[in-house]
Amino acid sequence: MELSKRVQEMQFSPIRKFNPIAQKAKEDGKKVYHLNIGQPDVETPACFMEAIRSFDEKVIAYAESGGITVLQDAIIDYFKMYGMDYKRENIMITSGGSEALTMTFLSIINEGDEILMPEPFYTNYHTFATEAGGKLVPITTKAEEGYHYATKEKIEAVITPKTKAICCISPGNPTGNVLTLDEMKLIGEIAKEHDLYIIADEVYREFAYDGRKVTSFGMLDEIADRVIIVDSVSKRFSACGARVGCVVSKNADFMEGMMKIAQGRLCVPTVDQIGAAALYRLPASYYDEMREEYCGRRDAAYEELMKIPGVICQKPGGSFYITVKLPVDDMEDFLMFLLTEFEDNGETVMFAPAEGFYITPGLGKDELRIAYVLNQKDMRRGAELIRLGLEAYKNK
Amino acid sequence: MELSKRVQEMQFSPIRKFNPIAQKAKEDGKKVYHLNIGQPDVETPACFMEAIRSFDEKVIAYAESGGITVLQDAIIDYFKMYGMDYKRENIMITSGGSEALTMTFLSIINEGDEILMPEPFYTNYHTFATEAGGKLVPITTKAEEGYHYATKEKIEAVITPKTKAICCISPGNPTGNVLTLDEMKLIGEIAKEHDLYIIADEVYREFAYDGRKVTSFGMLDEIADRVIIVDSVSKRFSACGARVGCVVSKNADFMEGMMKIAQGRLCVPTVDQIGAAALYRLPASYYDEMREEYCGRRDAAYEELMKIPGVICQKPGGSFYITVKLPVDDMEDFLMFLLTEFEDNGETVMFAPAEGFYITPGLGKDELRIAYVLNQKDMRRGAELIRLGLEAYKNK
């Protein structure tokens, strides 16, 4: 009774695997600053629970497999804000961005197909690709270059006849890299030339700072048939536990394939969809407020991180992550030290070692990712603890 | 930009595909009795929404990937009612029984592996198996024999070296067949001899009538390592739109594989889990009440169906479905007639043609499934409309 090969190839979440050790540190009385996971401390807008509380159907019935129209319409109006024009049949509601990606891969990837993936990248893509039998092929980027990948040379160097799609997470997790509309156009041209799908993971869409415009592959009409946008309420509205996302595409064949899978799993929970509809109807001022909040956190964390001797990091333009390179041979060993041996006034810090964000073996061992999901004061203190911890680690 | 082979092989839900035609009939002013889909009209117990309404965390955060402990503990106590003893690590919360099955297949099935499936069966198993590259191999059953399949001969006849698992939906969808504990033991012995997993889909567990005892593969300690129980709140608590289910297994390796997939998709929505915990804590009297309610509906529908000249059906012992054989060559054609040409006092009826519930080509063309999810009066009228419709169809 063996398990499937695919599940044997999968890894446990490298972001979550240090949780038991952090738990132990807390039980021993240490305060741990959690910069390791993208769980914001920002309050979920009250309209989410208010909408749910006022739901009064007597029977909690199956919803439509593609999603409830109230939510689809709210999403259509949300995209209109950015000049993008969708119809209900272009919007499929999913259980978070995660299911959107799982279903997308199952719909387009055959055993052995290749998917281009700028590395470092959000680790769960490993799982989504492996479920569909696909192979992630890295476009390797560097801390020294701000993790930039949008050049014809870099992308075409790894295209083969088996390449089926390119994934673009923008604003990026874990790098914070934000694609400009011109870079998106370039990727669109490459995709056209090599007949690729573009999987555009834009769940951090509004989190673009320093005057950067909100961009989306959905703004490019000339490649509308090959663009698959993945969206989610998790980060934008600090509603990770709502598990509501969607796939947006004007490719009717693709959406038809997705519907077959969607009907198999029946629907996304009704009440969360109702709550999510309220979130998507928040005014534009909400995004401005969030942008300002996260930008302040980024600045606080970045300023403090740059005080670490030997740190390599270009100021990231978006999302709520910073990946930095440090003069450390083995980041996991350093993290273990922070959680088990180090403390400063009874406090320590947790981050995500970046190795798990790479496909290429050996890369990322000297990098870490922090999520700036805590308030400015905590972000500063967390980054400071990394610096103090590193001093102690070096002097061990 | 082709779609994946798997998605091309999948079919749209045969239960849902007549919906647009039924919709048209309604727009034309006909009343349609929906006996086609397992969406009960029973009110969801109020404790579900009450628990959700009283949830007052400020941040809707990610839940644990395996589920919230409040729900796991409620499920543990629920199983204790039947003398089954589980720990939290044996319980993984999923987005309904659907995700439980998808994840199970992804965890144990390799490309080309075979899964034994008594036919007719719940059609979405096609989708779940295809997602994992597995092949459903039918154990064919007959209306004349009450769709009985639990014999050594029938099961062993289709076992090959590629067989990895046997699926048992009991009480059955769409047949209403209920396995006795002795039959489960027999299946357990066969599974042991041929080294198979048993996927025990027991979402209708309490819906067993005429003095039949509640049975579960979880009651058999000697095969605990090969049993994977799929459970759900959808039918038992009339909470289909909550999308909460679980996988229950004492096989630690299997549960570890499942956790890798679970971490990839992060978690099941928090508020639905909180609501589901309240449902699993309902007193045993709730099940008695539901059992009585559905048994009355079954009796009403069965009595009325048996008035149809030429009908073949053994009274089903459980779940809330009846599959019957009628003197009709093409049930889809008959259904089209009912929805587009027939009416009796402005009313007609919709059922699920059974062909989609079979793997073997050609089978089920003269069978239909009804779900007795409406009140007795409506069930009687629905069954009567099938009889009247058939008369009209024959006289056409």
TrEMBL record, chains A, B:
Molecular function terms, GO-annotated: transaminase activity
Species this protein is from: Gallibacter intestinalis
Enzyme superclass (EC): transferase
Entry's EC annotation: 2.6.1.-
InterPro entries with a match to the protein in the record: Aminotransferase_I/II_large, AspAT/PAT-like, NHTrfase_class1_PyrdxlP-BS, PyrdxlP-dep_Trfase, PyrdxlP-dep_Trfase_major, PyrdxlP-dep_Trfase_small
Name under which the protein is recorded: Aminotransferase
UniProt-listed Pfam families: Aminotran_1_2
Annotated family: Belongs to the class-I pyridoxal-phosphate-dependent aminotransferase family.
Cofactors required: pyridoxal 5'-phosphate
Keywords for this protein: Aminotransferase, Pyridoxal phosphate, Transferase
Residue stretches making up the Aminotransferase class I/classII large domain: 31-384
